[in-house]
Amino acid sequence: MAATTPPAKRRIALGCEGSANKLGIGIIAHDDDGSEAIVLSNVRHTFVSPPGTGFLPKDTAQHHRAFFVRVAKQALADAGVPIVDINCICYTKGPGMGGPLTSVAIAARTLSLLWGKELVGVNHCVGHIEMGRAITGATNPVVLYVSGGNTQVIAYAEQRYRIFGETLDIAVGNCLDRFARTLEISNDPAPGYNIEQLAKKGGRVLLELPYAVKGMDCSFSGILARADDLAAAMKAGELGSDGEPFTPADLCFSLQETIFAMLVEITERAMAHVGSSQVLIVGGVGCNERLQEMMGGMAAERGGSVYATDERFCIDNGIMIAHAGLLAYETGFRTPLEESTCTQRFRTDEVFVKWRK
Amino acid sequence: MAAAATESHQFAPPKVLTYNPATTPPLLISQGAEGRLYKTTHLSADRPCALKYRPPKLWRHPILDARLTKTRMGGEAKVLERCYRAGVPVPALYAMDLAAGWMMIEWIHGMPVRQAINEWLGERPETILDPADQVDETPLVELMKRIGTVLGSLHRTGVVHGDLTTSNMMLKEKESKGNDKSEAGSKKYALEGDVVLIDFGLATQSLADEDRAVDLYVLERAFASTHPRAEKLFTHVLEAYRVAFKKAPSVLAKLEDVRMRGRKRSMVG
Amino acid sequence: MEKRHLFERLYIDNATAGYEVHTALFCGVTNRTELRNHLLALNTDYEYAFVNAERILSRAHLLSAIFTAMTSLVQDTLTTKNVHSEIVVSLNPNKNITEAYNRFGIPPPPPARKDNEPPKDVPPMDLIVVKVLKLDTSSSPEKDDNPAANDTWAHLLANVKGEPTRLTDEELERTVNLAKLRGYYGLNNVPLLDEIKEDATLRKQEMERLIIMKMALRAV
């Protein structure tokens, strides 16, 4: 492949992501005519906190600082490209946790100065969307972006990813993470993954939880509070509404069934609204097979299909930052050093998407 | 409730439409995210009705699915009854089966306001209508005023619609139009008729200025995007609303606030 | 057969597949207590819906209840023991079954005031009878030739002591007690009705609609 593509016309970006507890560095190449994105390397290291605890910004930032050099070296080695061939350094500008974002931004600036490469600040959500589109080939999907920090239903229109619906309080991933803490489920490899596995053993009963959809928006805090109450009742030996005892597996099952139904419903509303039959699920919660299955059922009823990626791309990673950053870079976008800040709040629709029609 | 879907049934109709060869065969009118709409009859041929059917969503847990259908359709039915008895023009509720997911409501003869306005505008030259021009007496202004009056009566009743658009209002055919089938007649009466509000699937009971203002704002946005050439006439809706509803002044003041912070909603359009 | 034409077969859209529904009005029924006792004893010879004609505004009012009951019958979601009792409870705007029987069925006789007082005379009443029959699959569904219907009519003529009458809207206008209906269905102080001053036809039509809405909301 390298023989047929002149290296000079190929563009290469290194992307650094650390907006939450994953530190990811990836290297991507866009071929000459921009028709293909080639993943050269995609390395990740996750900060895992003990069961019953969440990851705190200070500890997470410390983790990212401690592992950055190791992960970067691995990414370069995996990619096998000389530093001179890299066109730009991309980093996550936001949204995310302040401390971890800053640690990675400083490291990206360091690489930029060290190697003499231009910087490109990237919106984390746009990174997820563009990577999802590139991997799945979905051309103009309604995007459900679900992670520990975000819950949004997005569709593209006139140079922006517009938010049609979103959570009115906490993110769906945050709801799952915090419930995992309530049940003291392991955070390794991820709390959501362990809830999903436990849920597969439940299903004898559907415990009643609030269902909070308002138009295309939704809310999760009331559901979490109720689920926590039910967990406390379970620990106290109380019985379910059917007079039978219930288990952590039943709780996980009921939680997943309820919140995923909400997500699928608001996605369906957005699809009907914009007249699309494609759905792309991105973000860490998008790995969940039950969510993918429900979304697939909905899309099939509408004569469409669902696109999802596996954990390499669903979960936060550096390659998506490299890819979205490179798309912007190719349109002439740069982030000057003095503007290479990061921000905890950075809405998806603030980004001018110059690379799409 | 006007044009029938040209395709024959793509989906199996709800069971209730399969028991008996009704005097008039059911007709699939539309299918949206929330469900499907059929035209059929209630009791006898002289009682045409719309049947709203929410088919089970098979991807959703059956217990949850049944619960949602029950609360939402039940809620819509309650709001219809509340409006109807208060004299707000809405279709009467005829029958309902929450377990099976359907309700029958009065069939409104006529066309959606959206279609009526677009057909009427289609006959005008390509100019923007402006209240400053000498078009104050146009049938369209009169229609806007009727809409405002109806919205005033809706809010007075303690209901907010939740999804106001010109597609969710019917222009009920007048008898006079029915008798005059000539082309001139149909033009003459194009915008006549009572405005009837439909589709209360997202309606809530509320007395809050905020909710009422958002209701108006949603319509204002929808009107601007659906009928850009008549956008400036929307002010007549609000004027008539002010006359019809005693608490309108505080709602309209709130509407200013809602417009100012319309950041997010403006993307929903 | 005698007065057979008074026993009308009803056709109700979207409801009556596989069944026939017949109805008639009996005016001035004198043996209401006896009929009520048959119902209470679950006497299978008396599987009828007996409806108090005083509590029915119009044919559409009654047919709405039959429609609801028939829908429950074919979907196997009856809330009472059979389709006939279901018709009676379907008339009520709430789920209270005993209340529904008392309001819309044959009401209980007035209680004796003292132990030693003889039972009060039970006044005659106008009674609507509805009978749901399984359609005889050997006969054509288009023809009114189900022999079971003839048997039913003969049984009614022999056992209901009243004047058989065809059930029409005109008869119902004579028998209805509007004040009772307004109470049952919450139709006092309804803006929609209060605004109609002159037009009695329109007033009745709107009343009918409000009643049918209340019945449809029974399950909510």
Automatic annotation (TrEMBL), chain A:
Cofactor stoichiometry and binding? Binds 1 divalent metal cation per subunit.
Q: Which cofactor does it need?
A: a divalent metal cation
Query: Does the UniProt entry include the keyword Magnesium?
Result: no
User: What are the coiled-coil residue ranges?
Assistant: none
Q: Which NCBIfam families match?
A: arch_KAE1 (TIGR03722), gcp_kae1 (TIGR00329)
Where along the chain is substrate bound?
Answer: Y145, V146, S147, G148, G149, D177, G192, E196, N288
Highest taxon of source = Eukaryota
Q: Where does a divalent metal cation bind?
A: H124, H128, Y145, D316
Report the subcellular localization: Cytoplasm; Nucleus
PANTHER family linked to this entry: TRNA N6-ADENOSINE THREONYLCARBAMOYLTRANSFERASE
Q: Which UniProt keywords apply?
A: Acyltransferase, Cytoplasm, Metal-binding, Nucleus, Transferase, tRNA processing
Query: Can you supply one Gene Ontology CC term for this chain's record?
Result: EKC/KEOPS complex
Q: What is this protein called?
A: N(6)-L-threonylcarbamoyladenine synthase
An example Pfam family from this entry, by short name, is: TsaD
Automatic annotation (TrEMBL), chain B:
PANTHER family per record: EKC_KEOPS COMPLEX SUBUNIT TP53RK (PTHR12209:SF0), NON-SPECIFIC SERINE/THREONINE PROTEIN KINASE (PTHR12209)
What domain of life is recorded for the organism? Answer: Eukaryota
Does this UniProt record's set of keywords contain Transcription?
Answer: yes
Q: Where in the cell is it found?
A: Chromosome, Telomere; Cytoplasm; Nucleus
Residues annotated as domain Protein kinase: 23-269
Q: Which UniProt keywords apply?
A: Activator, ATP-binding, Chromosome, Cytoplasm, Hydrolase, Kinase, Nucleotide-binding, Nucleus, Phosphoprotein, Serine/threonine-protein kinase, Telomere, Transcription, Transcription regulation, Transferase, tRNA processing
Briefly state the protein's biological role: Component of the EKC/KEOPS complex that is required for the formation of a threonylcarbamoyl group on adenosine at position 37 (t(6)A37) in tRNAs that read codons beginning with adenine. The complex is probably involved in the transfer of the threonylcarbamoyl moiety of threonylcarbamoyl-AMP (TC-AMP) to the N6 group of A37. BUD32 has ATPase activity in the context of the EKC/KEOPS complex and likely plays a supporting role to the catalytic subunit KAE1. The EKC/KEOPS complex also promotes both telomere uncapping and telomere elongation.
Q: Which protein, by its recorded name, is this? A: EKC/KEOPS complex subunit BUD32
GO biological process assignments: tRNA processing; tRNA threonylcarbamoyladenosine metabolic process
Question: Tell me, how does this one assemble?
Answer: Component of the EKC/KEOPS complex composed of at least BUD32, CGI121, GON7, KAE1 and PCC1; the whole complex dimerizes.
Cellular component per GO, a single term? nucleus
E.C. number: 2.7.11.1
Pfam families membership:
Kdo (PF06293)
Recorded GO terms, molecular function? ATP binding; hydrolase activity; protein serine/threonine kinase activity
Similarity comment: Belongs to the protein kinase superfamily. BUD32 family.
Q: Which reaction does it catalyse?
A: L-threonyl-[protein] + ATP = O-phospho-L-threonyl-[protein] + ADP + H(+); L-seryl-[protein] + ATP = O-phospho-L-seryl-[protein] + ADP + H(+)
Predominant cellular place of this UniProt entry's protein: nucleus
TrEMBL record, chain C:
Query: Keywords, A to Z?
Result: Kinase, Nucleus, Transferase, tRNA processing
Q: Which Pfam families would you find in this protein's record?
A: CGI-121
* Subcellular location as annotated: Nucleus
Select a single GO molecular function from the record's annotations and give it.
kinase activity
| Secreted is among the record's keywords | no
Top-rank lineage group of the source organism:
Eukaryota
Q: What are the GO BP annotations of this UniProt entry? A: tRNA threonylcarbamoyladenosine modification
State a GO cellular component annotated for this protein. nucleus
Q: What does this protein do?
A: Component of the EKC/KEOPS complex that is required for the formation of a threonylcarbamoyl group on adenosine at position 37 (t(6)A37) in tRNAs that read codons beginning with adenine. The complex is probably involved in the transfer of the threonylcarbamoyl moiety of threonylcarbamoyl-AMP (TC-AMP) to the N6 group of A37. CGI121 acts as an allosteric effector that regulates the t(6)A activity of the complex. The EKC/KEOPS complex also promotes both telomere uncapping and telomere elongation. The complex is required for efficient recruitment of transcriptional coactivators.
Family, according to the entry, reads as follows: Belongs to the CGI121/TPRKB family.
Q: What is the official name of this protein in its record?
A: EKC/KEOPS complex subunit CGI121
List the taxonomic lineage: Eukaryota, Fungi, Dikarya, Ascomycota, Pezizomycotina
